[in-house]
Structure formats: structure tokens, C-alpha cells
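Dear colleagues,

As part of the handover before I leave the project, I'm documenting each prediction I ran so the next person doesn't have to rerun anything. This entry is a single chain, and its sequence is reproduced below.
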Amino acid sequence: MTHTTRRLDLGAIAYGGDYNPEQWPEEVWEEDVALMREAGVNLVSLGIFSWARLEPRPGEFDFGPLDRIIELLHANGIRIDLATPTASAPAWFLAANPTVRPVTADGRVLGYGARQTYCPSSPEYAAAAARITSELARRYAGHPAIVLWHIHNEYGCHVSRCYCEQSVLAFREWLTDRYKTVEALNAAWGTAFWGQHYGGFDEVDAPRDAPTEPNPAQQLDFRRFSSDALLRLYRAERDIVRALDPDVPITTNFMAGLSDNLDLWDWAREVDLVATDHYLSAAKTDNQIGLALSADLTRSLAGGEPWLLMEHSTSAVNWQARNIAKRPGEMARNSLAHVARGADGVLFFQWRASRAGAEKYHSAMLPHAGTGTRLWREVTALGADLAALGGLRGSRVRAEVALVWDWESCWGLQLGFKPTVDLDFRERIDAYYERFWRAGITVDFVHPGADLSGYRLVVAPSMYVTRTAWAENLRGYVRDGGTLVASYFTGIVDENDAVHLGGYPGALRDILGVRGEEFLPLREGEQTGLAADSDAGAGIRDGRATRWAEDLALDGASAVLRHADGPAAGRPAVTRHGFGAGAAWYVATAPDPATLDAVLRAACADAGVRQPSGQAEDVERVRRTADDGTVFDVLINHGPAEAVVEAQGRELLRAGGGAGGESGDGAVDGRLSVPAGEVRVLVIDPR
């Protein structure tokens, strides 16, 4: 998956956040800008929710306040990421166009008073969005302060699918374009089941709530259509801006790893610079792993190029069940972890904490309590830390291991009537990702149809939907010498959610060298023993498994672990198969973490993946490499105690712990101490 890349070049790592001056009287603006300079802010996102101010009445525009704040920022050397304000339409627009309001699958019409209150297929909304975008781009094209255009905000975050009549008409058009004939649609959807045959596209409805589970292929296509409908809106605004201001890069903010509503492989091709928002799952005590996953996924969407963290939080958010505040040093660790994994910019929502509205308890760079606060001191310290790390800009993270990530598989697994409710896309992705994170092995994510030749090891934890071409891609990868690890319920259906016949795991049977006759999911809380074969390999021992088993037979593969008891007693649970010049492992259950670690270590050894030594349990370690061979080694201690790691180089930065960072000045030759909660950045010069 490729996309056009245009880097954001500020001469430094971008630092700042969403700025919403319309929430404050103009006399506050001067103070804001002065404090931004104190904090080291060099980029703000402006105008995201300003549509009602910019167009107070239909076709009547007032750009005066926006002109003034842009000039104030420009005069103070602060660059602007200017947004089209289309994520929040004015009240007058909804009052004049009531059919624009989105409709849920059960027929409820959503009301005004929040944001994203529009049907993605509404022609009235598209026309109004095009009008305000045109006026904005025409007025500010070429302004020297504007270094990035920000289309909309968080597409699909709140309304990803609409079931109104306009959406149904658009869905029919999308289906007609995809299938050409209704006979082809009937074949793809398997409408012979339950007598769902269609005589024409005009008979097709959206998959609304029904007496029981709607046609799964119809639901899967509706997810694709809905992602495409939002993408069409993005493209329309982007193309308007590009025609008027062709030299400035254009983006929109994804929510990679947080939202599953968009197929971001498709979206990534349409932006000049990949940007994302990330917020911790506050209740998790190891949420730094989810942060790393989101960052790695974003970097992968960017094709390995540097990317922009458009939003995260300085402390607590406002929308989780328990909004846990970040403790001293945590904001710096979070921010620098994103930088370590490829971000060339760190922005927050938002600059100044709101007094009113739904997000008034969301933390900000400038908190309600003002500048005499720990949070403000950490914000200014982070600005200085990022300024010291300017040399990292443009460098890249390199990985030998890739995890397959496919939004169609995610959507397919969310459909009902599966062998067990324990089948969950993210559960398996997270289980495998965590093992690599804890082992200190950096991974990329890949689309199943991508070029895999650059990776020694490819892991497919949750590839339920497997198109024939994708199976052939994996087949060629292993045949040519690659190593594949596939988890259970992978390779099962084609793009229409139709089962690949001949036994499980469907399209991947020959690569994996096994044939399953029946799924044997386990009961809630049930465990089975895992017994290692005598030649299982070094480090693989007996263990336990949960969730899943299969009536699995070997068809060329060798058993590594077998079920010792339970419904699949004696059957293979983990296998290895030599295929062509490579090898394919099948993990046909959910092993305990230690056992999965052992299996993945063996697969890494198979693949020749370098496994780090001298790691400390709680230390996250990632390297970025510049074009000239300079390596930046970032070490983040998330644990409660000091850690000592093997390291070489010279210190560039010491940061975290709730205090301001400082430049490192010492050579490190062999061992480095990283205090609890702190960050160290080393430089390893090219030899």
C-alpha cells in the first residue's frame, strides 16, 4: 500500500496542539501566544470547530477573527495546521436540512447538539462542506504561516454508518458499481440462504436491525461502503484545497488502533502526511503497550515514513468510565514513545482547557489551574526536550517482523453467529503484539496483500477474511524463504464471508500443512494442557491454553505442542511446516503467555530474527536510523525501579520523572542506568 509522502518541515520536531481561540475573548489571545512561546510551541491546529463562526448564516462569511489570530500567531513564529471546520455543522444548517441528521440501525434519528451530526451520503451536507472549504482555502492559500491543511476531524469517530434513505440510495449505487449485475450480487452474498434473492438493486436495503442476524456479506459490504462514503467526503474537500493551495501538504487525523470504522490502508494513500490521534486506555496499568501498538500501526500506514501525532492528552481525558490522571513524568514518556516509534511531531488536544462544553474536564497544555502547576512545568519541559531531539527528524524505524492487520477481518469477526464469542480481532492482535513488545522486538503492521519480502517473519494473528490473492501472497512469501506464524481462525472465509471449503484453516491449509475437520471452542474459563513433543525445540515446554481448540490433523506439518486433555486431547495445538524455502507455524489455540513467548522465540530463530539481549523487563527500547547511518536509541523505563541495560553511544537526552529534561554529555560504553519513570536517548554515530 503506497501513498504520496510530503514531510512537514518546521526545522524542528512539531510541538503544540489544537487551539480554539473562539472559546475565549480576544484579550486572552495575546496571553495564549506568549505562553505558547514559553512552552516551545511551534505548531497549532486551528479552526477545527469554527464553521458556525465563519459562516454565521447561509452564504454569509465572517473571517475577521480568524484573520486576526492567524496574523498574531504568524507574528510570533508559530506555524498553523489550518482545518476545514466540517466536523461540526452550524445549527442553522441542521434546522434547514433535517434529513441530514444520521439514522441508526434501529431507526433512531440522532439530534443536534454534539458534533458529526450528518449523514455521510447527504448531498446537502457535501455541498455545504464544499462551500465553506472553498471560501477558506481561497482566502488563506499561500499564507506563509500555514504549513499544513487539516481536512475535517476524526472521520467516523461518532457517525461511521448511517441507515437513512439517502444512505440506502448511495449504498445501491456503490453496489451497482461493485457488482455490475444483481446476479453477481446474489452470488457474492449467498442470497440462496434464507431465500434472500434480489430481483434488482432497488430492492436492496441497508442492513438495519432485523428479526435475527442480517446477511453477513451484506453487513461486510456496508462497512466497506461506509468507509468509502466518508473517504469520498475527505477527497472532495482535499481536492478543493489542493487546487487552490497546491504546495502545502494535506492530511486528516486518523484514530489508528483506537477506532475500527475506517479501512485506513485505503485512507493512507489519500493523505500527504499520515497523522493520528491516540488516547490511553486509562484503566489499564500497562497501557504503554497499546500506545506503542498505535504508533507502530500509524508508522506502517505511513509506509515507514515519519508521521504526526495530531492529538493526545497531557493528563486525563473526559470520556472514559474512570478518567485516570497521568502521574509525574508520564506525559513525557507517552510523548517520547511516539517519537521513538517514528513521529516527527507531538500535538495535544488542546492548548487551553475549556471552561464549558462536553470536554471541559479533558486535560490540556494550559490547565484550569494555570501556569503555577506541575502540568504546566511538564509541558514546558517537554517543549525543551523535543527541541533537543531535532536531529531525529526524518529518521526511520526499521523492523524485521510484521503483523498482518486487516480491517475487513476486524469487521468480519464482529458479525454474529461465530463458533464462539471469544473470537475477537484485537484480542489476538494484542496478545501477539504484547509478546514482541516485552521481548524488545519492534514490529511493523502490513496489509495482507502488501509486499512482504522485506520481513524475516510475518505473523497473522487474526486474518479471518482471506482473499485468494492474499493467500497466494503469503504462499509466495513462505515459498521464497519467509517464515509465517498464523493463529487460529485465520484463512477461513473469502471477501464475501463465504467459507473456503476443504477443511480448516481454509485458504492456508497447504502452507501450514494441516487440515482441520471441526472447531472445538472451549467453555468460558476452561483450560487445556499443552504437551510438548520430544523434538519440539529448545525452550518449548508444556503449558496451558484457553479459548480454542480444533480437531486438527497433520498434512505435512510436524506437531510442536499437542492438547493433553479437553475436547482435542491428543490433537496438534501448535505445528511447524517446511514449505518451499521457508517455514509456516500454526498456533491452533490460545497458549498462556510463557508458552506463546517460547513459540515466537522459536519462530524468530527459524526466521533469523535478531532477538535483543541485555533487556530490562519494564524498559521500552526503540531505535530510529537516519539516512547517514546515525542511530538514535530511545529507552523508556515504565517500571517502578531503576533498570540497567546494555547500551553503547553518547547520551543526547535525559528526560522524564516529572522534571525538566537535560542534555546528556557522557559516553556510554556497555551499561546504562535508566531511573524509574525516566527516558534516555543515545546517539550511535555511523562507523
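The chain is about 30% helix and 20% strand. The radius of gyration is 26 Å.

All the best with the project,
I.
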